[in-house]
Amino acid sequence: MTFPLKTRLKSQENSPKMVMWSINQHWLVRIVLRSISYFRKDLWLIVTLLLLIGASVLFNLLNAWPMAILVDTVLSPTPKPNWIHTLFLAPFGEGKLNQIFGMAFVAMIIRILSDTVFMLRKMLNYRIQYNGTLRVRTELYDKMQALSLGWHGSRSQGDAIYRLSYDSLGPWGVIDTLIGSTAASVTLTAMIWIMLSRHVLLTVFALSFTPLLLLANWYFEGRIRHRAFESKRTDAVMTSTMQQAIELIGLIQSFGREATESRRFARVVERSVSASMRLHWKENLYPLAVQVVFALGGGVIFGYGGYLVYRDQFLRPVPNGLTLGDLIVFMAYLAQFWDPIGWVLGFTTKIQTFVASCERIFTVMDEPPAIVDAPDARSLSVHPRTLTLAEVSFEYNCGQPVLRKINASIEPGQMVAFLGPSGTGKSTLLNLLPRFYDPTEGSVLLDGVDLRTLKLADVRKHMALVSQGSPLFPGTIAENIAYGRPDALFHEIREAAVESGAAEFIETLPEQYDTLIAEGGQNLSGGQRQRLAIARALVTKAPILILDEPTNALDLKHEQWVIETLQRLRRLRTIILVTHRLETALDCEQIFVMQEGEIVEDGTHADLLARRGLYFRMLH
User: Fold this and answer.
1) What is residue 14's predicted lDDT score, i.e. its pLDDT?
2) Do 227 and 280 contact (CB within 8 A), yes or no?
3) Residue 12's pLDDT is what?
4) pLDDT value at position 253?
5) Ramachandran bin of 417, using left for φ above 0, alpha for ψ from -120 to 50, beta for the remaining angles
6) Which of 538, 454, 450, 447 has the alpha carbon at shortest distance from 492?
7) Mutual orientation of helices 210-247 and 258-310 as an angle, nearest 10°?
8) So what's the pLDDT on residue 532?
9) Structure confidence at residue 581 (pLDDT)
């Protein structure tokens, strides 16, 4: 964090508390300005909202006057000369009944207009909120999609869901508080002016309680922010726990762990409730403290104002003394006066919960993506190309290599396999090919060109990945197959389904390719999901097909079918298999045998058998 020289010099002279206060104010200003940026396109709506707020202020200021005029002028034996009274009564003539009913009519119209404007303000508030929150959520979602698998792997899905669902409301909360404080400032200025015009000393008495409000704001500001952060962290953990429990419900039931998971969930909920209650205590103690100050001020003003009316109208009447109508107006304004002064002085306290949300989403938005296009990244048209791994090493954590000096060259049209038991780095190697990660050392190349010098989109157009989990999304079978190529024609979708072996079961279904897939593909078997995933990769026409354990969920018949399909495809595509099943790799042109992050053997099936090394021992 860098500050201007003048600020830095001053900070050297101030106490640590003052320095921290200065830093916090700079930080708060940045949060507010960044939040405002999401609502710039709604400027005309915000201007309209401010005009409506101005109208509300006007109606609130006028609201007390019909009663005051009725008491001081219409019903008083000695009407009070006042230009405001004259203005209100002018349309109703000199008759007392006309004036009484006229003031009732004016009070009714003011109330109707006030409530109508309030309703319009609320609807406009909703429109601005939804517009800005849409932008925040879209940007946050896009950023989460751009972040690496490593970033997502280090955080729970529930935390990401919480940020998208709840923390994304933070910028609107900041804007809403800012607008409310702006409206309060206008209201406060008008009220102070009118109150001073009615009675200077009473107004001074009302303002004398301001230091107590400042003290309350100072005390609660940091405490509310701390509790808000704590509450949001525990709520995110609770969301993650719920998401995990629903996702693993089959595992929980199969092992009879319902009671254990219920207790674990109860503990998480209890921590969330405790954190929320601590936040709510602070959030509600703050307005209570403010209301106590208001009550003290109101009591003093009411008592002193009542005394002044009694003195000026009964003890020793004076022509320009304080009247009952003046006191009614003054007390009505005073009731409205405390709310805007609380908004203005309590701005930084009210905004803390929203600032906590903003910090959580801006932290994600400011996270530098691990994989990005180089400034001078080259385009690369989609064609069959030679894929080369040159001295590739990789580590997730410094000093803990997962891959060591991997060298391999795969020609167009070849079918090759990376073979080895679990934990040898096969899946990590697979993730380097479409640049989900970049090598720590060495290079991955297409036709001799380092992937890091190419546009990421072009690299991934060359490769179609069939992951081991075979994820599917709710939608039709045809939509799932065409996911990587939405413009695919039906005959291309069906051709891919036939080649993958998926057509066999698809075309026995009543709705065939229009059959809806349930959440996570729960209405399909594991083998069916795997074949659909292979069809989805085939329909893209990518020249390099990468399959992670492609036959893991298939029976022997369909495993052989998939292998035969891949053998037919290798004349047109490069096929890369990542597997621990030797049967899948038997007919590959090259088999790379991996152990502890290294390629220890490579060659054809016959070559590797003849060496009687690790491959031979694995087969026997």
Assistant:
1) 47
2) no
3) 42
4) 61
5) beta
6) 538
7) 160
8) 83
9) 73
> d(Cα 260, Cα 248) in Å, to the nearest integer?
14
| DSSP H or E run through 538 | helix 526-538
Q: Name the 3-class secondary structure at 450.
A: strand
Place of tokens 């491959």: 615
Note the maximum CA span of the chain.
Answer: 123
Residue pair 178/344 in contact by the 8 Å Cβ criterion? no
Instruction: Determine the Cα–Cα distance for residues 357 and 232; give it in Å rounded to an integer.
Output: 8
Instruction: Tell me the C-alpha to C-alpha distance, in Å, between residue 157 and each of 135, 138, 167, 246.
Output: 21, 17, 14, 12
User: Two tokens at 118?
Assistant: 């309030």
* Domain residue limits, the chain: 16-365, 387-619
Q: Which of 594, 580, 581, 480 minimizes the C-alpha distance to 529?
A: 480
The parts of the chain modelled with pLDDT lower than 50 are 1-23
Fold of 387-619: Rossmann fold (3.40.50)
Q: Give the architecture (CATH level 2) of 16-365.
A: Up-down Bundle (1.20)
Strand partners, 397: 400
Q: What pTM did the predictor assign?
A: 0.68
pLDDT at 95: 77
pLDDT on residue 258: 67
Environment class of residue 145 by beta-carbon count within 10 Å: exposed (0-12), middle (13-18) or buried (19+)? exposed
Q: What is the DSSP letter of 74?
A: I
Closest by Cα among 388, 377, 369, 374 to 442: 388
Residue 534 is inside which H or E element, if any? helix 526-538
How far from 552 is each of 15, 98, 528, 577, 578, CA to CA, in Å?
66, 92, 12, 12, 11
Torsion angle in degrees (nearest 10) through CA of 283, 284, 286, 291: 150
> Beta strand pairing status for 387-397 and 441-446?
antiparallel
Amino acid at 306: G
Can you tell me the distance from the alpha carbon of 508 to that of 477, in angstroms, rounded to the nearest whole number?
A: 13
Of 323, 234, 311, the C-alpha closest to 274 is 234
- Please give the structure tokens belonging to residue 501: 């072996």
The helix-helix angle for 258-310 and 200-207 (nearest 10°) equals 150
The residues pairing with 378 across neighbouring beta strands, listed in sequence order, are 454
Q: Which residues pair with 115 in a beta bridge?
A: none
Cα–Cα distance list, 221 to 157, 322, 346, 426, 600 (Å): 31, 39, 8, 52, 62
CB-based burial, 587-617: b 16+ in 10 Å, e otherwise: bbbbbbbbbebbbebbbebeebeeeeebbee
Residues 263-308 have pLDDT tens digits of 777 787 778 777 777 777 876 777 777 778 777 777 877 788 788 7
d(CA 434, CA 597): 19
Spatial separation of the C-alpha atoms in residues 289 and 346, rounded to whole Å: 12
> How many Å is the Cα radius of gyration of the chain?
36
Give Cβ neighbours of residue 585 (< 8 Å, ≥ 6 apart). 417, 419, 577, 579, 591, 605
Residue 138's nearest CA partner among 168, 175, 159, 174 is: 168
Spell out a b/e string for 380-412, using b for 16 or more CB atoms within 10 Å of the CB, else e.
beeeebebbbbebbbbeeeeebbbbebebebeb
Determine the pLDDT at residue 1.
34
What is the Cα 444 distance to its own chain's centre?
Answer: 35
